[in-house]
Amino acid sequence: MNERYENEIKEYTHWIQSFGNDRLTRWKNLLESNPESALCEAMTCQLLINNGCSVEPFEDLSSGGVDFKCIKNQQEFFAEVTCISQEKVTDKTKLTDDINAGATFYRSLTKVFWNELCQKASQCSGLNAPCIVVIGTYHFRGGCLCFNDRKAEEILTGKPYIAMALDSNKGKAVGEPYQETDLESAAFLRPIKKEQGKGIEYARSPISAVLLCPFGAPRPNIVGVLHPNPNFLFDRKLLPKVKFGKLKEGYKTTGIFQIEWI
């Protein structure tokens, strides 16, 4: 794997070394023990730089923290990187990573994304600017099928299901089927507990946005989604090469969750 990304490794090695040998050693150790995670870190840095950001490492080598601090147009934000390994994608989706494999049934990664964001929310807290979470993978087929626009929308809405209106007098479904959601595995919204009444509330507000990055593809189609009510709003113009989805207004009163891409 490292041979395929030799140029990226050289570029990031040179970049991270400019911030001290301790950071270089940490990353080289990660590259040896977990090359997919190390490469996700390197590719994220390159992505941020390619979008015109000034980037520097921010993780405290002794206590941890988010990976990068970024500045663009006098605006500051942070980025935390997480990697879903090829092995885990295969296990959760049941997709092999054989690019010549034919069409097959597969499972989504919506719940996996939810778990990753649950774990990262506390890590992104306590900052004084927006924090984005970058989720990467080097699983080619999983990246193509589970890191696209439609699957990114499920981070905001949860897993959809098909529903129909019921005519109680006739005892049968009427009208056309439509998509519905109970917000299962939605990262930033959840139903209010029954004893507190009806409605929805926000969750994981330290995370301002999420990027899905299928780094295993030759030309990764990177998409993002915006938290509807974060601690700090992320200006999507800071990453002009990334398409972002957000919830259309009115969802709290209508219960209709629609996504618009900007």
Report a brief summary of the structure.
With 262 residues, the chain is α/β, with parallel strands linked by helices. It has 8 helices and 12 strands.
Explain what you see.
It is a single chain. The protein has 262 residues and is α/β, with parallel strands linked by helices. The protein has one domain (6-157, 203-261). It is 31% helix and 26% strand. It is built from 8 helices and 12 strands. The chain has helices at 6-17, 21-33, 35-50, 86-93, 110-121, 140-146, 149-157, 251-254; strands at residues 54-57, 68-72, 75-83, 131-137, 160-167, 172-181, 189-191, 200-202, 209-214, 223-226, 243-247, 259-261. An 8-stranded mixed beta sheet has the order 1-2-3-4-9-10-11-12, sandwiched between helices. The chain has a two-stranded antiparallel ribbon with strand order 5-6. α2 crosses α3 (35-50). The longest helix has 16 residues, at 35-50. It is globular and about 75 Å long. 37% of the residues are buried.
Task: Give the topology.
Layout lengths: L5 H12 L3 H13 L1 H16 L3 E4 L10 E5 L2 E9 L2 H8 L16 H12 L9 E7 L2 H7 L2 H9 L2 E8 L4 E10 L7 E3 L8 E3 L6 E6 L8 E4 L16 E5 L3 H4 L4 E3 L1
Parallel strand pairs: 3-4, 4-9, 10-11
Antiparallel strand pairs: 1-2, 2-3, 5-6, 7-8, 9-10, 11-12
Helix pairs in contact: 2-3
Task: Throw out a few tags for this protein.
262 residues, alpha/beta, 8-stranded mixed beta sheet
